[in-house]
Amino acid sequence: MDELGTALRTWRDRIAPGDVGLPHLSPRRVAGLRRSELAQLAGISVEYVVRLEQGRASTPSAQVCAALARALGLSDDEQSHLFRLAGHATTPDRVPRLIPGSVHRIVEQLAGSPVLVCDAGWQMLAWNPLFAAALGDPTRQPAEDRNAMLFQFEQQPSRIRQTTDERDAFERSLVADLRATTSRYPKDPDLRALVARLLRGDRFRELWEQRAVGEHQGARKVVEHPEVGDIAVESNVLTTQGSDLRLVVDTPRDAESRSRLALVATVGLQDMAVRSD
Q1: CATH number of the domain at 3-85, please?
Q2: Which CATH number fits the domain 101-267, given the four candidates 3.40.50.300, 3.40.50.720, 3.40.190.10, 3.30.450.180?
Q3: Domain HTH cro/C1-type: where (predicted)?
Q4: What is the pLDDT confidence band of residue 159, given thresholds at 50, 70 and 90?
Q5: Least confident of 21-30, 44-53, 172-181
Q6: What's the pTM?
C-alpha cells in the first residue's frame, strides 16, 4: 500500500458513520467508515476506493481528490497533503481546488439556500444538501463530468429552465468568465482539457471565438422540481479571495417559490411521491 492509500485508510478509520449522517446499524469490526460508505459520500465507485487504498489505481483527478476531501472532512492542511500525494501540487499555474474550512463554514450557515462551490473552471467541488435536493444530486454524474460548463453546453440532464434571452446571457457570461480564467491559469492541464472538450460543441465554439472576457456574477432561472413544481430563483455568484472559488447561492424570487423551496428543505432527498401499495 502506498502513502496515498495509507492516508486514505487512516482518514476513513477516524470518522464515525454518525458524524456524516450515516446510520450505524450493523456490527462493525472498526469504528470508521466502510469503503462503500466513503464511495457513496464522494460519489465514486467502491472498486475505485479499493484500488486507491491498495495503490493499484492511476493518479486520481483533482475532482476526485476534492470529492474525497469533502467526504472525509479534511482540514486545509490535510487537503493540501492529499493533493500533493495525488500529484496535484498547488502552484500559481494551477486552478485552486482546495476548499478552506472558512468556506465550508459559510456553506453551513447558508443551509436555507441551495449552495454550490465551484473552482474557477466551474468544476463542482462541494454543495449543501438543499442544492442536491432542489437541483439534483451531482454525485449521479461521474466526478470528471461535474462541471457547470459541461452541464450547460453538453446539454446534460438538468432541472434548470430559462427564457431564450436568459439562456443566451447566461452562456455568454459563463464563457467570458472561463476565458478570463484561462488567462490567469494558462498552463493548467485540466483547464485546457476542459476547453478542448467544450470546443467540440457548436454553441460554445461560437461564443469562445468572440473572445469576450468578463466575470460571471449571477443569473435568473427556474428550477423545475419533479415533486413541488417550479421554483423561481436568483443565482448570485460570490468569488472568494485567495482561493478563487465560486459560491453559487440560489435565493427564491417570490413567496410561492420560497414556500416550495422550504418544502424541499424539509423533505430533502426523500421521494415525495405518494405511492399506493
Answers
A1: 1.10.260.40
A2: 3.30.450.180
A3: 28-79
A4: very high
A5: 21-30
A6: 0.80
